[in-house]
Amino acid sequence: MSTEVAIKSDASAALTLIERAIDKGVSPEQLSKLIDLQERLETLAAKRAYAQALTGFAADVPAVLKWRDANIQKDGKRLYGYKYVSLDDIMLAIAPVLANYGIVISFDNKPDPKPGFMGIVLIIQVGTHTERRGYEMPIPPNLNGNQTQQFGSALTYAKRYALVAGLNIFMVDKDNDADGLLETVTAAEAQQIREKADAVGANVAKLLEFAEADEFENIPRKMFPIIMDQLKKKGAQQK
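Above: the chain sequence. Below: its structure as tokens.
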């Protein structure tokens, strides 16, 4: 018998015990303790199911191929290009795995973000157990369109980051190497760069331009030690 089945069995046994206690006319205090026991067992079962679902998802979720092309231009001249994936691309790739493990995701606004940042909350639910993971994203500079369109673009950008970071999704370039190594930083490394850049007050736009990437998650893996070294030097100069 698995731990999950055992917990559910205990919860069912607790419910049966409560029913028998009611039939026997136990005191309100004793009945309250039995009800508390049942609720604790149900909560434990829900948390266990959540953990098992996320573990299964992590094992089965595919890496998402960056196939879309973006070209950054200035004054009509191409500065650089890169491959990227949209929020829809990611959702399309992971939706079957989410459904297989009964995982439901949604988003909410994170209140009171720092100036120049957008707050986003990734909500992950399995059965009756829900967890919220909040992030603050710097609003990308030079967004196109009117204010409403710019807000929509920034919101989509924040959702994509929260989804990738919260579920540890890998985005990869086309594999041209025999060993199939990932070419971009991991979600954890992207977060390290983001936090360090924020700590030393680095210009995010210039940092990304230096890395030839549109966002932290698309920074080439080979650039990670270089960027971290530069940020450490910048921090040391401020002391």
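The helical segments are 3-24, 28-60, 87-100, 147-167, 187-200, 204-211, 224-237.
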